[in-house]
Specification:
The chain starts with a helix and ends in a 23-residue tail after the last helix. The protein is 18% helix and 22% strand. With 119 residues, it is of the alpha+beta class. It has a domain of 68 residues: Regulator of K+ conductance, C-terminal domain (Alpha-Beta Plaits, 2-Layer Sandwich). It has three helices and four strands, in the order ααββββα.
Length: 119
Amino acid sequence: MAGAIIDYIANQVAFPEIDVRQRLTVSTGYGVAEIVVLPGADLVGKKLGDSGLDERDISVLTLHRGTTVIPNPRNKTLLEDGDRLLCFGKLEEMRSMIPERKRRRARVRKLPKQPIHDA
């Protein structure tokens, strides 16, 4: 009888192989993204709890700092430049945090006056 109870409990706490990204994207408009803290960003030197991410409905799942991985970082964790934050939250909010890239002018080369011949 005790063996049957242990088997029952073991089956209840088993961790099946799941695709976490798929499970976390079931809510429309929500998903998983990685946010990189760039040098000079407003987040540098702030505690995670003071970063404003929570108010933007963004939860930090994991913080990658160099070779260190901090799962479920605490609100008192100070953010540094180069930190990579694996986040779950509103995709639109996370997209709005990406700095706009400077557009480069397209460089168009003029054709030479003389045709180029194969040597």
